[in-house]
Give the backbone structure.
Amino acid sequence: MFKTENYREPQLDVVCFSHLRWDFVYQRPQHLLTRCARDHRVFFVEEPVLGSGSMRLDMREREGGVRVVVPHLPVGLHSEIASSAVLKEMIRRLFIDNGIREYVFWYYTPMALTFTDQLDPLAAVYDCMDELSAFKGAHSRLGDLERRLFQRVDLVFTGGQSLYEAKRNKHPAVYSFPSSVDIPHFSRARAARADPEDQVSIPHPRLGFFGVIDERFDIDLLNSLATKRPDWHFVMIGPVVKIHPDSLPKHPNIYYLGPKKYDGLPDYLAGWDIALLLFARNESTRFISPTKTPEYLSAGKPVISTSIRDVVRPYGELDLVRIADTPTALIQAAEELLLANSLEKSSWLARVDDFLANMSWDNTWGHMSLLLNQVIEARREATATLKPVQMSEHRQQQL
């Protein structure tokens, strides 16, 4: 990342600020930043953890060499001004203790601007993977801080086409990078695999979903499907957050298997007959671009989705994914897929493979890196006339 074929840069660190926990669900940030960490030190700074212990900054190394940084703050630190001041000091110490001098900021949350706006990165990017202000429990200042973040960053990447269309007029350099896929990983599901222990006894046909089960999940649709087709079996994989588990439908043919490791997902997918995208149609799903869409397809599984815009375009329009919003329509689509003959399946799979042929997280990261290269090279050229002493004094003043 950030280097041309004939040019070797000095150490350039990447400091990411995220609303997501690294160990929560393996998704876009993990795919991108593990690739970044092949060439650079990556510090992944999570949102603070509130507790009764000491005020501290923990750092541990994760897969691919990513350094996950977790601030711990006391529960009683209610004032945003006070917490921002503490976090500023923690980030200052992080930089000093780890010798972070030349660095890029990578934002997933505008909230981090409250404790990073005093610093001057060589470049800054906002990887806007969701419309966070539309999510349940969103901070009241999120919209305002995002507007301020647009003024501070050099590049804005969006997690899908719909989000790009919503953000493209808010910054001069907005680029759409829809959800990608690790094809070799998920294509393992196309071969016969032993069923995981907690899935092996579930009868067929199996209709499965993996992902976060929260306010974006269509509980009512799942309930209706399970009621109308008691002979079908619904496998639900993923953590339940922001909604009470008691609100989920309970039927003998619904199986909540909980969260699973990313490495094991192909083993579960291999045993499904149909993969589902059971998203509600509300404000929180208006701009989502589900990563699981190409993941399901890479696994060779027929997919049925509700009418999420970034699934309809392009997957639904190309007839790679069936679109259905009502129980009746979804059941009809599932019946047709279950009865499809081998020739129909083969033809569909060939079109899927053709569509996915050039899709990969490596390609996505390569294109992002190229754009960052351009920003960094322009910044270096602009500051090349500064004397080394001036540059040193300028950086020290930030710390």
